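Quick start: what a row looks like.
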Amino acid sequence: MLNDQRRDSKESLPFIGTEEAETVDRYTSLGTGKRSLNSPKIALAAVTGLLLGLGTGLTLALLLQTHLRCQASTLCVCRQEETSPLLDDITIKYHEQTFNGSFVHRTIYRQDASPTVDAAWDALGVNFVGVLISREQASRHSIPQHWAHMPQEYGGQYVVNAQVHHHLHCLDLLRKGLYFNIDYYRSLGKGAFKNRPAVLKAHITHCLDSLRQLLMCNADVGVAGWIWVRNTPTSEPFLFPDFNSAVHQCRNFDEINDWAERNQIMYSPLGTVEFEPPRLGERIPVGLP
């Protein structure tokens, strides 16, 4: 009986020669696990395939991470600005930066009032005049049509200011209004300080509340820890906030600032701006907003 079974098995492969039969036996035996890794070539192929798979997976993961980071940056800009004509010319980039939060080591921006300090703030664009935006840009970026613009014969451009420079202007005015600076600027009698006290107060408090809203809108969820410090090598240590520890994702302010400076109205061919008067019958609100 056993011999008959062996004979039937050989007869079931009538068209397979000796070499082909060995090949069939070799690969069918892989399923039984008897010779699955006995071949060096198979082991090498398995290791090579594994390494290639890992390499491909890591590459795809890095590409996906970069793509998502770029998407997040773009989404951040779109959500905060909705639309801005500045983005027609400027590509927003981000970089890591640790803030200088020193309590006692003063940067130029926090020193007592002087021409040198004023020059440092001026370089931040706090006194930039507006830039011209074409009517096509205004339409594309949903700029309100009731905003003042130039006469049609001169192109009908809108005059706008980058919000960052308004915010910095406000911060600069708060600096000038500090108790240890205000007498200096009152004596100069320039800018906001040539106005009567009630107008100056309205200007300063407008700036104060504008910055409050800006900070709340862009709520910083970073954290500041505490560290042990001492005033002298022998004094007792005490706790103090570490304002220098947080790393922020910052935009390319210098590029934005340079663009706004280059495109100021004073550098345009027109030199000055004469706004088109309101149309007959146009509704004009009463009082300051």
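That is the whole record. The chain has two domains: 12-81, 87-267. Residues 12-81 form one domain.
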